[in-house]
Design brief:
heterodimer, A: alpha+beta, Cytochrome Bc1 Complex, Chain D, domain 2, four-stranded antiparallel sheet, 12 helices, elongated, B: mainly alpha, 74% helix
């Protein structure tokens, strides 16, 4: 049952429209690879030149049997490939070396090693595309848009299960009946006459600039584009599939329809305090005006380690790891005075807190980057540093 | 079928013997004057023989595995070259006396003061190293004897069952080959610089091995064919696949070598780049450039055409050329550890060609006397002889 249906399909598949063009070639089908090699030898041996063999898969020994000269197509591939290499080289050199210079990993702008994979890719790409273009051009015999063999029962067989050979009518030795007897003399299973493609009377060629051909290609292109657009941009976003694109939240940089001024992002209410950032009450005041509050943090190992960590991150680039003003940025930025001076040592914690929060001279305010508790922890750590450099004699006595 | 067996002349043994003897004398003299250098020379020789011997065994396995018919007339030549595998077991013994001279990481006092080597010591220690080497050699030996014995037995009755058995053996052997050759290359060559590492090193050596063994088979086959020791029905077309595969794996070698270079170049990490910098200092630069041209660019341009691969005269030049290129490749891998700053080549290094060629000639002559030069009753032999493009 199933086999019968398949056979029916096969018969439908092998059918092709009858043609009215002049005779293009006489072709024959063979059942085995050995037969086709013998056929090729006999045909080329009897002096035919315009003939070709078509097989479903590549066969060893066919070139010799057909007495083919070595093909020149390799040179086309080489030439196209080398132009791909050159194109890639010039492209990369111009892009990264001249037009859009960008430092990557501290290397020179243009380098050979990373260009090699691109040169390799373009070599392959250009030679492959050129060879495919050549295949279409040669096989379709431009400016015709199709080989007369296309869409025939013969072609459909040699692309699936049979081995075929044909001799063109243009061959000087061609004689329809002679060719047919030649083919059948070494066991052809089927022989066909193949006419040129011309479905309408009076027309014998299928030029590539045929209105119908070009029109069909353009039509197919437009339909494909429209269908893709409809599927990708309309169909996929119809109500059940909105992919969570529409949500109640406010997206950045979008207009608000609710507020009068149209801004989605609102300014905070007057007097809003950000979490963890209690505003400093003596902001911008002279340091004589501050009320000296004691350091609220206890002196524990945890606090000192936190203080060291913050100090090394935020303070040490200018003040140095030991607060001596021997910064790592020496020469690029004014060097701050040492923190071990008499003045700083005698300052109260609140004075130092004031400087960190408010800034002093060229030192900017660190209110935004260091949290309140961290500032106090830094001060504790700074006291440790100062003690280490100016230890009193009493420290020498062991406990 | 008339496969009249023609033995190689006795002069092969004589010439090979003289070369081997003079090579050994040079090596011993080098050992007296510069023992460390002698061990590096010897390591070079050993690794080259591993490439040829074990690589040929892998080719035999590969040909069985993919069911190649074109290779059947040449298979016995490859098998005879693979007979270097049992010899390796004897050859490896002297190397163990030179471990201290070759490998930095075998010194306990160095490892104690070196954190990187300490962390690598679970793998890089002499005991585990010896076990790995012994395991690899035994594995190669076992598969060598099993595969060649089946192939030889087939010469008597032509039973296709032996081909089936060998396909089975090759299926097991090929993955093991890939693993063992990686381990061997890492142990014996990459650990010369124990601080350096490259994950593609094993593949790099593997690619070189396959190129070298294809070159060795091609070289032997061309010379045997010209001397009339092979079946006269073997046509030039049969050499096409040998040439193609040699060419193809050579491109693969270049691909792997370039991948390794590009990654190291891009990352630019001091722990990786110093290995390449050693190969670019002083006259090593010329060796590196020569390697690029000798191993890849020149053979690529020469062998890229279709006709080049069926041209026996050309293959007769290119096959020894590729063997030389592989020797240069190994020199480039091994010697920068010994010759720091500048490449060196002097009389102790002459032992390399003398021993390698001499030993291969003697092994080839001895083994081929006991075997047919082609697998006379292989079921695929006729198909192999009929092969044409």
């Amino acid at each position: 049952m199933f086999g019968r249906i398949l056979n029916k399909f096969n018969e439908e598949f092998l059918k092709s429209e009858p043609r009215k063009g002049e005779l293009f070639a006489v072709s024959a089908l063979y059942d085995t690879p050995d037969q086709i090699i013998t056929a090729a030898e006999k045909v080329s041996g009897s002096g035919y030149r315009k003939f070709d063999v078509l097989t479903p898969y590549p066969m060893h020994g066919l070139d010799a049997a057909m007495r083919l000269r070595e093909t020149k197509i390799g040179w086309v591939g080489l030439l196209a490939g080398m132009s791909g290499t050159t194109l890639a080289f010039v492209m990369i050199w111009w892009m990264v070396g001249i037009d859009y210079k960008n430092v990557i990993g501290g290397k020179p702008f243009f380098n050979i090693p990373p260009s090699i994979p691109i040169m390799f890719e373009l070599t392959i790409l250009l030679s492959a595309l050129t060879l495919v273009a050549f295949l279409i051009a040669v096989f379709n015999k431009l400016p015709s848009n199709a080989n007369p063999l296309m869409d025939t029962e013969f072609m459909k067989h040699v692309t699936s299960d049979k081995f075929g050979i044909y001799i063109e009518a243009k061959d000087p030795k061609f004689n329809q009946s002679e060719v047919k007897t030649l083919f059948s003399s070494f066991g052809a299973s089927k022989i066909y006459d193949i006419n040129s493609v011309a479905y309408d009377e009076g027309k014998t060629k299928n030029p590539i600039l045929d209105f119908k051909f070009i029109g069909n290609i353009i039509g197919i292109g437009i339909v494909t584009a429209l269908v893709s657009y409809f599927i990708l941009n309309v169909l996929l976003f119809l109500p059940p599939f909105n992919w969570m694109h529409h949500q109640a939240k406010v997206l950045p940089q979008t207009e608000s329809k609710f507020f009068k001024d149209g801004f989605s992002m609102r300014k905070p209410v007057e007097g809003t305090v950000a979490r963890g950032f209690i505003p400093y009450e003596f902001k911008g005041m002279h340091d004589t005006m501050i009320v000296e509050t004691p350091n609220p943090l206890p002196v524990t190992k945890k606090v000192l380690e936190r203080g060291k960590n913050r100090f090394d991150i935020y303070c040490s680039p200018c003040h140095g790891y030991y607060g001596k003003g021997d910064s790592r940025l020496r020469g690029q930025f004014p060097v701050p005075p040492t923190l071990h001076s008499e003045k700083v040592r005698n300052w109260k914690d609140a004075n130092i807190y004031h400087v960190i929060t408010n800034g002093q001279n060229v030192m900017p305010s660190y209110e935004k980057s260091i949290s309140r508790d961290d500032r106090w922890a830094i001060i504790h750590y700074l006291r440790v540093l100062q003690r280490s450099q100016n230890a009193p004699d009493s420290d020498l006595e062991g406990k | 079928m008339d496969n009249i067996k023609k033995s190689l002349p006795d002069s092969v043994n004589k010439k090979g013997g003289i070369m081997l003897l003079s090579g050994v004398i040079i090596l011993l003299a080098a050992f007296v004057f510069e023992p460390q250098r002698a061990f590096f020379d010897y390591l070079w020789i050993y690794m080259f023989l591993v490439s040829i011997g074990v690589g040929s065994l892998a080719l035999v396995g590969l040909e069985y595995l993919v069911g190649a018919t074109w290779s059947t007339p040449f298979r016995r030549v490859t098998e005879i070259l693979a007979s270097l595998t049992p010899v390796l077991i004897i050859l490896v013994i002297p190397l163990f006396f030179g471990l201290h001279d070759l490998f930095h990481w075998t010194h306990h006092e160095v490892v104690e003061s070196d954190k990187i080597l300490q962390s690598k010591s679970p793998y890089l220690n002499v005991e585990f190293f010896s076990i790995r080497t012994a395991f690899c050699l035994l594995l190669w030996l076992v598969f060598f004897f099993m595969i060649t014995r089946n192939s030889e037995k087939q010469d008597l009755d032509g039973n296709p069952l032996y081909t089936k058995k060998n396909i089975m053996l090759s299926t097991i052997f090929t993955p093991f080959f890939v693993i063992t050759i990686t381990v061997t290359s890492i142990d014996w060559m990459m650990s010369l610089e124990p601080h350096w590492f490259s994950t593609i090193y094993g593949v790099y050596y593997f690619a070189g091995t396959v190129v070298a063994s294809f070159a060795a088979t091609t070289c032997a086959a061309v010379f045997l064919k010209e001397g009339g020791y092979l079946d006269p029905r073997i046509k030039n077309d049969s050499f096409y696949s040998l040439g193609t595969l040699m060419f193809g794996f050579n491109v693969f070698w270049a691909y792997i070598g370039f991948s390794q270079y590009l990654l190291i170049w891009y990352a630019d990490l001091p722990e990786e780049t110093f290995w390449l910098i050693h190969r670019w200092e002083g006259s090593w630069m010329f060796v590196s450039i020569a390697l690029l041209f000798v191993h890849f660019i020149i053979p690529f341009l020469v062998l890229v055409g279709r006709r080049a691969k069926t041209n026996i005269g050309l293959l007769k030049i290119m096959a020894p050329w590729m063997l030389f290129a592989h020797a240069l490749d190994l020199y480039w891998l091994i010697f920068p550890t010994y010759f720091k700053g500048n490449a060196g080549f002097s009389w102790p290094e002459l032992s390399f060609p003398l021993i390698v060629i001499g030993l291969t000639m003697i092994v080839f002559k001895t083994v081929s006397d006991r075997k047919n030069m082609i697998p006379v009753k292989d079921p695929k032999l006729q198909a192999g002889l009929d092969f044409h493009l």
